[in-house]
Amino acid sequence: MNVGSICVKIAGRDAGKKCVIVEKKDNLVLIDGETRRRKVNQSHLVPTGEKIELKSGDHEEVKAAFKQMGIEIKDTKPKPKTEKPKKSRKADGKKRAVKKVTKKAVKKEEPKKEAPVKKAEAEKKE
């Protein structure tokens, strides 16, 4: 598997989708295509035998090459990061005490029930 090889991803969320190797480092490769652009282990890919000539390896070049092959790639916009509102422990301007719950408080001990005594044993005791 070299740069430009078309592969099918066989593991993970993108399993069954076609991708192309953009960059190679040791046992990891950077892939792009129908899959998300990310580094994956080579053992998660199966080569198809096809090859694409890549110059720069940017997403637009990969997208154009896949379009020539008849495979359409959907672009997704990254979700904007929004700031989450900070949660304060203060309510109504007062600090609330945090009550610690112990295992003993959670697990209430129930009185042990006696096992039912057989009639024959009950008669012997009387």
- Cα distance, first to last residue? 88 Å
Q: What are the segments in which pLDDT stays under 50 over at least 5 consecutive residues? A: none
Strands across the major sheet, in which order?
4-3-2-1-5
Task: State the CATH class of the domain at 5-69.
Answer: Mainly Beta
In angstroms, what is the radius of gyration? 32 Å
**How confident overall, as mean pLDDT?**
78
The SS-based structural class is alpha+beta
| Share of helix, binned | 10-25%
CATH architecture level-2 label of the domain at 5-69: Roll
Strand content: 25-35%
At the third CATH level, what is the topology name of the domain at 5-69? Answer: SH3 type barrels
**What global shape is seen?**
elongated
Per DSSP, the total helix count is 3
Number of strands: 7
Mind summarizing the main beta sheet?
Answer: 5 strands, antiparallel
Give the ordered list of helices and strands. Answer: EEEEEHEEHH
Q: Care to describe what's here?
A:
By secondary structure, the chain is an alpha+beta fold. The protein has a domain at 5-69: SH3 type barrels (Roll), CATH 2.30.30.30. The chain has helices spanning 59-69, 103-106, 119-125, and strands at residues 5-9, 18-25, 28-33, 38-41, 45-51, 90-91, 94-95. Strand 6 and strand 7 (94-95) form a beta hairpin. It is elongated.
What would you say about this model in short?
The chain is 17% helix and 27% strand.
Annotation keywords:
126 residues, alpha+beta, SH3 type barrels, elongated
